[in-house]
Write a structure and sequence with these properties.
The structure holds two protein chains of two kinds. Chain A has eleven helices and twelve strands. By secondary structure, chain A is of the alpha/beta class. Chain A has a five-stranded mixed β-sheet with strand order 2-1-3-12-4, sandwiched between helices. In chain A, α9 packs antiparallel against α11. Chain B has eleven helices and 14 strands. Chain B has a five-stranded mixed β-sheet. The chains are: A alpha/beta, B alpha/beta. Chains A and B meet through α1, α3 and α4 of A and α3 and α4 of B.
């Protein structure tokens, strides 16, 4: 891992040295003017490594003069390339954060362009897996709306707060039992996606009933978090756990999720994650620098259209980690790219 | 003869009192003056040349620290004429990324660094960045990383809190924390004891909120459900009222309020509390001296990050520039420029140790 990063760091330095136009005030390390662009540089999600190699290999079959430089060392460093002008693509396994978008905007004076390119994996720890809400087998509640989750797990007015399973529809002995939740640390990409999906903007988890787990610095962080979450869940009969489908089992029942009170309530499985009916499926994004007042870099656009093409989508799907986007979504993203 | 002796004694008394008053004034002036005595002088270790690319804290059309940084650069170039600077003070959010993409040589942050930024650097470079305090936040100057105060209504009998109590008020009542709901829970007696505490402050995602979380909530991010975030507001005439001002105004109008806000904001209906690390004290009020000395805990620091491979030496031109900043000259320039506060001498020595 160390060697890998040093190698790519040297390559990146070479690219910067070869292609940087020394700025007085601007900072864009663009290809020299008048020379046809031949290098496409990507930073971002290390889990997309195999997919990017497969795509690049296919793209180069049609464009043999193009070279790719990948510095895929995590979504956390993904946006830095397009912010500083040292990359064309930011491959992100989670949406860019408000801080990252602000960083880009303060340099370029417009927001980065976001393109959805794949659906996150069904249950692979590092592949932006869909998030699944678990309850114990004995728990009578097997379906929830996102609103109910927010009222149970978020801070809210006393009148709307749900503190017991009765508030989520349980009858009998379960009515007065308290709700406890175990989930991902919101400093992580997975955790911040979860926070946004359930709490929306600005709301806070209710720490009197929510416990978060996260080991920020470990390379196997998602798997470690999952283990900690599911261990705590196993010890606590009143618990909700939020983890991935990998941990479904006899006593860990995935909850069907709905957006509206009246449903439909969708069980997470490969079909519903792939179709995006399931609300807590994830998305892989590519961000690019595309000024709203100018045409997008033609080579960048060409690669993005290539990525959204059904053949490329199938190619990525076969890699095993990620899922092709629904055709309606690739079509609408492609339309956005076409002037 | 007796009369002239009396007059002479009187004159002596007047002169003596005048001297005493002058001495007292000089003494208090010396105390309130921020002293850099004992700070090392900058003398170049080596002659360096090249370009130093500076990324960090800044924004279009607003001077956060651009004037200070440019001033440092000009002064430094008097000692090291072979050095050029290339500034990109376009925002703290851009800074760390510039460092690990090889686009910048120093990242100057206008707020405390986030774990995600350190993690990203570590994953790319294989080691953590070197962090060096460069300058201290101001006491109460707008846009210059002012210190934070804990405000209560003027009528509130409470005078001080420990950091633990602060955490209990602003953080969530979990198993480890005491439930703090009334002023009596903070030791206030009499009619105030049963009154409920209303907790206010900056939005948690703003730099002030992130800082407060780090210092008061141990970085847990676990704010109390009773914490009310306050954002900027529009005045009737359309102008914007800074969130820091809205917060202190809220405290002035709500007798049960407690809030954190910037020392840059005042309202005659609110007062600040003294803070202590523990119940043993001492309880320290926010003053320029206490912020400078770091005896008052809610001070800010602006940190510069550079890349230093383990076992290797710092790039000589970066070494010289940092030695200049951490010197009598560099910090004296901060004092002369106004706004930010210089680092105190103890901190200067500590930070210089990192450069060995």
């Amino acid at each position: 891992m160390l060697l890998y990063s040093r190698t790519f760091r040297r390559l990146t330095y070479c690219a910067v040295v070869l292609f940087t136009v020394t700025p007085c005030s601007g900072m864009k390390a663009q290809q020299p003017v008048g020379v046809e662009q031949t290098v496409l540089r990507a930073w971002g999600d290390h889990a997309m490594h195999n997919v990017m190699l497969a795509w690049e290999s296919k793209f180069r079959a049609e464009h043999p003069h193009i070279r790719f430089q990948n510095t895929l060392l995590g979504s956390g460093s993904g946006m830095a390339g397009i912010i500083t002008g040292t990359a064309e693509f930011a491959i992100m396994g989670r949406p860019a954060s408000a801080n990252e978008i602000m960083g880009f905007e303060w340099v370029h004076r417009y927001k980065p362009r976001e393109i959805s390119v794949l659906t996150g994996s069904v249950d692979r720890a590092e592949g932006s897996p869909a998030l699944v809400v678990f309850v114990h087998r004995a728990n009578p509640v097997h379906q929830l709306t996102l609103q109910q989750l927010r009222r149970a797990l978020g801070c809210c007015e006393k009148s709307t707060k749900i503190a017991t399973w009765g508030g989520l529809g349980a009858e009998g002995a379960w009515r007065s039992r308290p709700i406890h939740a175990y989930l991902y640390n919101s400093e992580t990409g997975t955790g911040s996606f979860l926070q946004k999906a359930i709490l929306g903007n600005g709301d806070k988890w209710d720490w009197s009933c929510v416990h978060e787990y996260g080991d920020f610095h470990s390379p196997t962080s998602i798997a470690k978090m999952d283990f900690a979450i599911m261990s705590a869940f196993a010890r606590d009969p009143d618990a909700i756990a939020i983890s991935t489908l990998r941990y479904a089992g006899p006593d860990a029942i995935p909850v069907a999720i709905a957006q509206q009170d009246e449903g439909p309530f969708i069980i997470p499985n490969e079909r519903t994650i792939r179709s995006r009916e399931y609300q807590l499926a994830r998305t892989i994004y590519i961000y690019v620098d595309a000024a709203p007042t100018k045409p997008i870099n033609p080579l960048v656009r060409e690669f993005l259209l290539f990525v959204l093409h059904p053949q490329s989508q199938r190619l990525a799907d076969r890699s095993g980690s990620f899922l092709a986007l629904p055709e309606s979504l690739t079509a609408s993203e492609a339309r956005e790219l076409t002037p | 003869m007796i009369r002239s002796r009396y007059v002479r004694r009187q004159r002596l008394a007047v002169v003596a009192s005048a001297l005493l008053i002058l001495l007292a004034l000089a003494h208090s002036a010396a105390e309130s003056k921020l002293s850099l005595e004992g700070a090392p002088q900058y003398a170049p270790h080596a002659e360096v040349s090249g370009t130093i690319r500076v990324w960090g804290h800044g924004a279009w059309g607003r001077d956060f620290m651009e004037e200070l940084v440019k001033g440092w650069e000009t002064e430094f170039q008097k000692y090291q004429p072979g050095i050029r600077f290339d500034n990109h003070l376009l925002g703290t959010a851009t800074a760390m990324g510039a460092l690990y993409t090889g686009t910048g040589d120093i990242a100057i942050l206008g707020r405390e660094v986030r774990p995600s930024e350190l993690d990203a650097f570590q994953r790319v470079m294989g080691h953590p960045p070197l962090a060096v305090n460069l300058v201290a936040g101001s006491f109460n100057v707008p846009n210059k990383d002012f210190a934070l105060g804990i405000f209560v209504n003027k009528a509130n009998p409470l005078r001080h809190l420990t950091m633990q109590q602060l955490g209990d008020v602003f953080g969530c009542a979990q198993r480890e924390r005491h439930e703090i709901r009334t002023w009596g829970d903070l030791g206030v007696k009499g009619s105030w004891a049963s009154r409920p505490i209303h907790v206010y402050g900056y939005q948690v995602r703003r730099g002030f909120g992130v800082y407060f979380d780090q210092v008061v909530l141990g970085g847990s991010g676990q704010w109390s459900c009773h914490y009310t975030e306050i954002g900027k507001e529009k005045n009737p005439d359309g102008s914007i009222r800074d969130d820091g001002q809205v917060i202190v105004d809220t405290v002035a109008s709500d007798p049960d309020a407690i809030a954190f806000s910037g020392m840059a904001f005042t309202n005659s209906g609110a007062k600040v509390l003294a803070l202590a690390q523990s119940a043993a004290g001492p309880y320290v009020l926010p003053t320029p001296q206490a912020v400078f000395n770091r005896t008052y805990p809610l001070y800010r620091v602006l940190t510069g990050f550079v890349d230093l491979e383990p076992g290797a030496s710092l790039d000589p031109k970066m070494h010289e520039f940092l030695l200049y900043i951490l010197s009598r000259q560099g910090q004296g320039f901060v004092l002369a420029t106004g706004g930010y506060l210089p680092l105190n001498v103890r901190v200067i020595h500590n930070e210089r140790e990192k450069l060995r």
